[in-house]
Amino acid sequence: MDLTFTAIVPLLLGSVGLFALFRLLQRMRMRAYLQDAVVVITGATSGLGKAFHAAGSRLVLCGRNGERLQDLVQELSAKANHAKNVICSQIHKPFTVIFDLSDTKTVVSAAEEILKCVGHVDILINNAGISYRGTILDTGMDVDKKVMETNYFGPIAFTKALLPSMIKRQQGHIVVISSVQGKISIPFRSAYAASKHATQAFFDCLRAEMEQYEIDVTVVSPGYIQTNLSVNAVTADGSRYGVMDKNTIEGRTAAEVAQVVLNAVGQKKKEVLIAGLLPSLAVYLRTLSPRLFFTFMASRARKERKVKDS
Known about the structure:
- The protein has 310 residues and is of the alpha/beta class.
- It contains ten helices and nine strands.
- The protein has helices spanning 2-34, 48-54, 66-82, 104-118, 141-169, 190-210, 246-249, 254-266, 277-288, 290-309, and strands at 38-42, 58-63, 95-98, 123-126, 132-133, 172-177, 215-222, 234-235, 271-274.
- Helix 4 (104-118) packs parallel to helix 5 (141-169), helix 5 packs parallel to helix 6 and helix 9 (277-288) crosses helix 10 (290-309).
- The longest helix is centred in the first third of the chain and has 33 residues, at 2-34.
- The chain is globular, with a radius of gyration of 22 Å.
- The chain starts with a helix and ends with a helix.
């Protein structure tokens, strides 16, 4: 027994050492990949801008609200002046571009402006989006189109506008923040789930087609996040939902999700699911036992109707 123990201990220590070395090399490679990289982020005020700025990336922050973007730039600059662990923070002052993803013409113009100002894009992160709450019967087609324009057509138009420059350089990384609802659909989220299913399909195709050009594609599918997504969601008549859902309040923080996204990009992961146990199980249940999944969703719809009617 003593001989066995004596033989196993060096093996265990060696294994731990190799694992630690692997993680160290992984972190070093991720740091080198992100440092000085030109990173374009739509919906930049959600928390991703802070994470990539701390990693030493050269940021292009995109959004509809110029005032909020400037507030973020000032916040990042202030943190950089007080944080010694931020790499080259004073050199890489973020650049901002204001445009509306739902307007395809402004999307193309924004892409041209970015390339003119920074020369090239190393990493594109499609993060901006809009949510939805309502029944299918009460929702007008204009609302369906609005959600699809912002969540699907906008990101793919932006991606297509920047893609040729990446192909020319044989280098680039395209990231899209999709949703668990790009894999499963839940009641009263039809327009949102449809847009995220379309997003998942498009970027899965893109990944395969871009492999020959050595361009990476990462699809991130988070569950509920503590942001104003539900507050700013559109309803069946197009009005603002204005309510912070219970599930959203109990979701992950934006900072937590941003760190997961940062690691996924740095490690060039193809797909990442950021969700709790039940949503993760539901994704697999939809494939392995669709009948049971449909039963659960029908039950959920009945419960939500009762709550709304009470």
